[in-house]
Amino acid sequence: MYKSLLSLLVIASFSTLFASNVAVGDWLTPEKDSIIRVYKCGSKYCGKIQCLKTPNDKSGKPKTDSENEKASLRSRPILGLKFMKSFEWDDGEYVDGTIYNSRNGKTYCGKMYIEGGKLNLKGRICYTFLGKTNVWTKSNAASSGMTCAK
Q1: Quick check: 72 and 64 in contact, CB under 8 A?
Q2: How confident is the model at residue 19 (pLDDT cuts 50, 70, 90)?
Q3: Which of 1, 29, 54, 112 is within CB 3.0–4.6 Å of 94 for a Cys-Cys bond?
Q4: Which residues pair with 26 in a beta bridge?
């Protein structure tokens, strides 16, 4: 009886661990202009811009975080930018994270969940219910044809 109970606990632990990593990997954005890599960062989950369809501006220089509210960060490249931070696995969702939008320089509260094999990322203005959900599809950065971070 004791061994059976112990076996069930071990199986449940591995099942939870596997389920919590389901979002880890590369995801194509709805605009199909970038691939986002979701990865484990410590005990939480983060995301970075892994690949861009158009990594350079019109002058041929790498696109930068030009809309950032902090002037000191406006010269950092968009490719490779860590823009999702501190998501925690909780009962089938990744919650309490932040999402930085380099297109407008704003940071939002967020959560993620998998539904139908797609990653749903919901960003909202913190402390409100106003937000938007983006649906990302699984991708393979290596065969994307985009310029990818190393």
Answers
A1: no
A2: low
A3: 112
A4: 37
**What is the residue range of 129's domain?**
2-148
Give 107-143 pLDDT, tens digit per residue.
999 999 999 999 999 999 988 878 899 999 999 888 8
Residues 80-119 as b/e (b if ≥16 CB within 10 A, e otherwise) read bbebbbbbebeeebbbebbbbebeeeebbbbbbbeeeeeb
Strands (E), the chain: 25-28, 34-41, 44-52, 82-90, 93-101, 106-115, 118-124, 131-138, 147-148
Say what the pLDDT of residue 141 is: 86
Largest Cα–Cα separation, the chain: 70
Q: Element (H or E) spanning 19, and its range? A: helix 2-20
Q: What is the CATH number of the domain that holds 16?
A: 2.40.128.520
* Bridge partner list, 77: 64
- Please give the model's pTM, rounded to 2 decimal places: 0.84
Number of folded domains in the chain?
A: 1
CA dihedral (120, 126, 131, 132) in degrees, to 10, reads -30
Tally of residues, the chain: 150
pLDDT score recorded for residue 5: 35
